[in-house]
Design a protein that fits this description.
It is globular, with a radius of gyration of 22 Å. Helices cover 71% and strands 3% of the residues. The longest helix is centred in the N-terminal third of the chain and has 23 residues. The protein is mostly helical. InterPro entries: Peptidase_M41-like.
Length: 333
């Protein structure tokens, strides 16, 4: 998997750079330079920087430098039936019920290996019975402290890291999942602010535990709407699609979703807080599912290129350049 990804990434970077530079010509300033400015703003701790980054992205889109930002052609907004989704080859009952069998299996393997190791050490007389009991008690104590102090962050870090070693497809699945969130948000006009693909990566960079893979967005306006209790339909539509993009990605690529249960639950809670009836909530979710699946099917190539860039550790602006490069010259965004 790694050698093929490396070859694809090299070709993608060249195509993206060329296409993005061409698009930037309409603004009179090299897009690479403006994107470096965007990266600087997105990485800044200044509370005003997020708003400035959003304004810069909107300016570049208006100038034609960012042709794909907020330009997605969406399916008509109306109530869709389950039958209509199935006619579009979508199985919502599978898509909306993720089950994390990979990490559950990894956790079981680690626990089993630990117990086997202790048993082998005992029978090989490396440790005696009292030492064996002490090791078990210490292990249980460490796990308990981790649950209390870090909400299980250390255990999650170990399991996530082991998952990438034990399961060769796990890392790629996570990258595609997060790229689905990133790409959908970008096409709908919600600027990504950052991302992480592994617990270990974030721990090394920021010494933070209990943070799994995820994307962050410039969503000050959305949060203000939520706080005021006046959420616009446009904001809700964008949030719904971005929230479901991860599970939609996994269902499209692997036939079932493993990650993203929290995303589905957050959307359910939001719709409940807005006092949507069950029928209205179902209609919102079904439209969002159809919309995001349509976008991801249409832009599969850009999605793959973005996931590869994220696995390389590309910055947000570099990821944007990849998207723009892949969609350069396309009239159907």
């Amino acid at each position: 998997m790694a050698p093929r990804a490396a070859q694809q990434e090299g070709g993608t970077a060249s195509t993206s750079s060329s296409g993005a530079s061409t698009a930037a010509a309409t603004a009179g300033v090299p897009l690479e330079q403006r994107l470096r400015e965007l990266d600087t703003l997105l990485s800044s701790e200044d509370p005003e920087a997020e708003g400035q980054a959003t304004a810069l992205a909107a300016e570049l889109a208006e100038q034609g430098a960012l042709r794909a930002y907020g330009k997605a052609a969406q399916v008509p907004k109306r109530a869709y039936t389950l039958q209509e989704l199935r006619l579009n080859k979508i199985q919502p009952e599978q898509l909306l019920a993720p089950t994390d069998s990979t990490l559950s299996g990894v956790r079981n393997v680690l626990q089993g290996s630990y117990l086997v190791g202790l048993t082998a050490a005992y029978f090989a007389q490396v440790v005696d019975l009292s030492q064996l009991v002490q090791l078990v008690v210490i292990s249980a104590f460490i796990l308990t402290v981790d649950q209390v102090a870090n909400a299980g962050g250390f255990e999650a870090l170990v399991v996530d890291t082991a998952g990438r070693v034990i399961n060769s497809t796990y890392g790629r699945r996570v990258a595609l999942h997060e790229a689905g969130h990133f790409l959908t948000a970008y096409l709908l006009g919600l600027l990504p602010r950052g991302y992480t693909l592994s617990s270990l990566d974030l721990f090394i960079r920021k010494r933070q535990l209990n943070v799994q893979a995820g994307c962050q967005f410039c969503d000050i306006a959305f949060q203000a709407e939520v706080a005021s209790g006046r959420l616009t339909s446009g904001s809700l539509d964008t949030y719904s699609c971005v929230a479901l993009a991860g599970v939609a990605t996994e269902w499209l690529r692997y036939g079932r979703a493993e990650g993203g249960l929290a995303d589905v639950q957050h959307l359910d809670r939001l719709l409940g807080a807005l006092r949507f009836t069950q029928a209205k909530a179902d209609a919102q979710v079904r439209w969002a599912v159809l919309n995001v699946v349509s976008l991801l099917r249409k832009h599969e190539r850009a999605h793959d290129a973005l996931a590869a860039a994220m696995q390389r550790g590309a910055s947000v602006a570099e990821c944007i350049a990849v998207i723009e490069g892949e969609l350069a010259g396309s009239d159907d965004i």
